[in-house]
Amino acid sequence: MITDDTFPVEPWQVREKTLDLDILAQSESVFALSNGHIGMRGNLDEGEPHGLPGTYLNSFFEIRPLPYAEAGYGYPEEGQTLVDVTNGKILRLLVDDEPFDVRYGQLEHHERVLDFRAGTLRRDVRWRSPAGRRIALTTTRLVSLAHRGVAAIEYVVEAVDEFTRVTVQSELVANEDQPETSQDPRAAAILTKPLQPVSHDSDELRAVLIHETRYSELMTAAAMDHDIEVPGRVEKNTISREDLARTTVICGLQPGQKLRIVKYLSYGWSSLRSRPALADQVAGALDGARYTGWQGLLDAQRQYLDHFWDGADVEVEGDPEIQQAVRFGLFHVLQTSARAERRAIPGKGLTGTGYDGHAFWDTEGFVLPVLTYTQPNAAADALRWRASTLDLARQRARELDLEGAAFPWRTIRGQECSAYWPAGTAAWHVNADIAAAFERYRIVTGDESLEADCGLQVLIETARLWLSLGHHDRHGAWHLDGVTGPDEYTAVVRDNVFTNLMAAHNLRVAADACNRHSEASRALGVTTEEIAAWRDAADTVNVPFDQGLGVHQQCEGFTTFKEWEFTDETQFPLLLHESYVRLYPAQVIKQADLILAMHWRSHSFTAEQKARNVDYYEPRMVRDSSLSACTQAVLCAEVGHLELAHAYAYEAAAIDLRDLHHNTKDGLHMASLAGAWIALVAGFGGLRDDDGVPELDPQLPEEIVRLRFRLRWKGLRLIVDVTHDEVRYTVEYNGDDTVDDALTIRHAGADLTLTVGHTRAVPLQPRRALLPAPSQPPGCSPQRRRG
Amino acid sequence: MITDDTFPVEPWQVREKTLDLDILAQSESVFALSNGHIGMRGNLDEGEPHGLPGTYLNSFFEIRPLPYAEAGYGYPEEGQTLVDVTNGKILRLLVDDEPFDVRYGQLEHHERVLDFRAGTLRRDVRWRSPAGRRIALTTTRLVSLAHRGVAAIEYVVEAVDEFTRVTVQSELVANEDQPETSQDPRAAAILTKPLQPVSHDSDELRAVLIHETRYSELMTAAAMDHDIEVPGRVEKNTISREDLARTTVICGLQPGQKLRIVKYLSYGWSSLRSRPALADQVAGALDGARYTGWQGLLDAQRQYLDHFWDGADVEVEGDPEIQQAVRFGLFHVLQTSARAERRAIPGKGLTGTGYDGHAFWDTEGFVLPVLTYTQPNAAADALRWRASTLDLARQRARELDLEGAAFPWRTIRGQECSAYWPAGTAAWHVNADIAAAFERYRIVTGDESLEADCGLQVLIETARLWLSLGHHDRHGAWHLDGVTGPDEYTAVVRDNVFTNLMAAHNLRVAADACNRHSEASRALGVTTEEIAAWRDAADTVNVPFDQGLGVHQQCEGFTTFKEWEFTDETQFPLLLHESYVRLYPAQVIKQADLILAMHWRSHSFTAEQKARNVDYYEPRMVRDSSLSACTQAVLCAEVGHLELAHAYAYEAAAIDLRDLHHNTKDGLHMASLAGAWIALVAGFGGLRDDDGVPELDPQLPEEIVRLRFRLRWKGLRLIVDVTHDEVRYTVEYNGDDTVDDALTIRHAGADLTLTVGHTRAVPLQPRRALLPAPSQPPGCSPQRRRG
């Protein structure tokens, strides 16, 4: 179990003081390195022991059949699963004749540090072999943010007390054995030996292995090269086999002498390119890396991150745990997206095989809002990836007898891979979430080119989907029936408020976009009649409201469903202990749904409705999804429950550093890590953008004495610096001083014009809660930050 | 394709005039013989060609894993599949040195006759071998209704033109090769080589094979013996192997000389008994059969059937096709239930592997109403089987965190085997259907012993299930949410009218039964408070009604769902061409649901409501289920659309004789065959029993000039003889003259007292339709019987 002692609270790093094999799999996820193209779990250099060995390439997957005991029309028959590719992380060490293995001999010191500013994973070890030889080992690993196909490891071993013969085996290993997965349906299916050898080659200190998947027919190449420094004689050789390449380095070290190896790695994959082209690609990347050199890679990494933190950092005074966790989250969000470049951003990034490595609505719903404000080019890349799957989404819509495009609930490449339609295909809202992400990108960045290039088509086709899904009843209300909203414990319902409001937004945004691009939209067959039908549906959308209780209904009838009977024996997550047939018709909610609607479609609710809805829904939400705490933080903050919001913000931020959902071993929860930023910036900062302007309304919980964050907005940078008394807004140019030098924001509901280079301090609008702080279901209250 | 020419219209038999190999699999189902314990498809004696070789023993199944690409709590992990047991039907014939095979040589004559009164399948063949030898072959097969473990075949081969050497190989064959099944989800998974050899033995003309299933660990024994008559020298021997026993008979026949073999077969299986016990059991049955002799078996068969027809026959003048079909249906319903004796009655009887051989609500809902009025001891046996699975149903309820007992949606042995919960577990109505069948049995037969023995527990536990499933809203209405009614195209809904009314009935019946058995119910923990809660829920059950349209809503909101857009390209059944995610939220109905509620809970609707509901729902029902036409016949008759009712009655009756659902090859549709009786007796006879008395209100469509049927009611027999002008009611004792000699029925809504031995003629109440005859979805109109 990860405890408060596991990782000391430090602002810019995660440090593990000793090695705890019981949480090895969790720490492998926490210490994962990635650049969005290559992902490496924080496995030990020597390969074992391990929780889950993992090296991944974005969108490199294998196909597996999806079995159904009772099949149905339109069920996807093929799934996609992220594949553990050739492992280049391995450097085995023999001390005299004994292998270095943390399970044997004596581990005198073992520390690992994930450094958010250096972008490295450092490891310091002092080990005494069973025969009594002591060595000091320092390794530093990086996956380059500047060089997309490159990773590198600096490996330094030192003899401590006496002359020691040291042998290092640096390897590429394909088709590693994988541990068996759990029965938990959320843990991914793991494939055994997915890589078929294509070719292998070695030469002095260099080797390349090329493999291909059996069914998806993707080819991958992994290559390594080495720089070796050592005083005295050294023997070196490299061999290669189908699934193994090994460079062996042997030398003798006097006490204090060091063997230093820099291992350069390069990776590539392709579905199209030939074996020689791929071999040349990784060879070229490897040459480039050696040319740059270890220090050059380190410098470029730090430079990349300096730039990122300059624009993205969130400073939290008064709660050092959240300070650490939000930076940890931002670091991983950056790692998962920085060089994804028109590939998916999976729910777990490239940190594990959880959810089969699939991307969900998490991307557009939680990760992209953060990137749009902090790393907009990465947001654009992710949206271009979505748009690149539009034809597949069109085919899926045709298969389901629908117009437009139906994007997949879960996928790697773009094909629908969800085998359970009530919580997959029926969750149509993913389409509106994608549309909203395009629109947010346009509004926040001011960049119209994405819409022109590909966004318009996505908006039109998703609008068409909604129109063919919905219908008017005989009284003129427009309904969406048989849909599943974000809450996966209440599925296949009528008029889910979240879905209906998001669909209406999708329809309106598409209509406006067609007016902006009238020629292009005409070329796509859009007529004024079609646009009018979209607007009409949006205007007449049914939003269920319980007049008696004065609250919205998450879906039609929700407030009259059976209440869930929580007992002291209730076990969470409910989905592992209760059947869907019981959960669906009850007033028990897995994750923010109506609450999320009040965040994303903030202007569709009055302040009183928000307060009453939070009061009604909080006691019914069990947070069995990691996509809930951050949103609950945002709404609790808005309606004045600041301490509760603080607790939720911590829960979102600490999800993986404290393994709160007990599945960090399968990979990190990217949406929740992004959610830490959302909880702070949209929660305590009050950021909203659904009215087309940046709205802020900060208010801090007692313990947080200062919150400072940066937002990009149309070429400007807005710095928001909040204390308990006031907020100081500063606007700066963001590299481009040709843009307008004034920015009108909305502060606490009132327009406020800011000019570049100036700071304005304004008092906070005091937040008074309309209702007392709500309770949660038994066992579901978040851990309070005070008292 | 089965055409009108395939089986000539004859009142007491189904005769196939020539052999059409294209419909071999269908004819194997039509010509299946069974006694409810043993089932034999109508495979050719020589084993091939075949569509689907099949020999079954009731509840002899194998377990198979149920795979889920995305698992969920409470999903059954093991399925049960009916197993093709040792085939004893095979008698291969060599004519000189050429095997008799209908695909070679010249088939000069081939006729098969299923005789409803003899209870036999007869086959007459004249064949000329490729070498020119002509033989005449006559075989008669029976599965004994009088001797549960016994089947027999009389096999007579005659030389026609010249001296012929004849070799007959009479076999027992285990683990026959099975054809691959189709992709249609409704076709059963077929297991390969499910039988593991345990022992085999042979002796002169006799052999026994004993096998065991791998996972379900059921043991089965099959044995054969022979009587052989032939002029002149004959050689005989019998061998046995693990999966084969063969008796070979060789003789020479002069023209006109015959070889006659009577093959006696006996079968048994057990999960408990030892191999020797089982071997002795089949040996004893075989000895008994030989002692009875072929003629004795034939006589007993006819006697059994004479008795059955005397109490069950339905005479239809004016529509000879329906006349034939309803007798065909009654014959198969009898076959499937006669000697089931506390085993399940599967949806396809023992006529094929469709639906894996599972029993559904079809049994209690469609088959038992017929048996209760015609063969009540078989109905009681079936209900005792259900009650025997009560502990499994209790366990299932516990697993789902519910009180009481949850009977399985589909099963062989009693465990839930449904792998798709929205159309399985959520179809809770099966529990109320079972409760209603117990209550109908009690009311119709007057036999209180079944309730005392086991029915009371079933009623109590199902009532408890309903109470824990439902809840009151804050206005006091009692709801059942997240349920699936009979219509599998509209699933997981709120307040399905059928389910709600049936649940209310279940609750009331349980309350009344507890009052009748107050001591026993107290022993089961029932208190007056619990009974009061049952009555309260029943009294406050919500029944959605659309005031604007003046019709009931099949479920909450149904009449405001999207209308299905039928086009000329719409393909049926919809489930093979459209996704559930589209079907569920649309006003498209697979099968009678609200319409069925109006039949089974007839007194919960006014005449006008029935008329308006039929008018509203008819154009939305596509009849993709075989459980629909009979109910539509009943309600169309009730509201005055007699010609439409006639068309539906024919469709229900002819489902297998005309292969209307294109899957008769997988087995017969027992519920629809029972439905032919229901369509005639409840439709044109107007029989209702949901008010506790026999209600009749006959009215005939134009073409049917006379309808005569018999009903058992509390020890009496009521004969109903309807013409277009009047109905003649006759009451007789039914074997027991100690019962009351008066019977008060309700005729056309008014009480009418009848006395034993007298016939009363009363005029019909003329039926006037309130509304014009409704339309059906394009392509879904039943074939009209006139014009």
Automatic annotation (TrEMBL), chains A, B:
Q: Which residues form the active site?
A: 488
A Pfam family: Glyco_hydro_65C
Using the record for this protein, list the coiled-coil segments as residue ranges, or answer none: none
Can the keyword RNA-binding be found in this entry's annotation? no
Renumbered to this chain, the signal peptide range is none
Kindly give the Gene3D superfamilies that the UniProt entry links to this protein.
1.50.10.10, Glycoside hydrolase, family 65, N-terminal domain (2.70.98.40), Maltose phosphorylase, domain 3 (2.60.420.10)
Q: Where is the Glycoside hydrolase family 65 N-terminal domain?
A: 16-270
Q: What family is this?
A: Belongs to the glycosyl hydrolase 65 family.
Q: What is this protein called?
A: Putative glycosyl hydrolase
In its UniProt entry, the species of origin is given as: Mycolicibacterium madagascariense
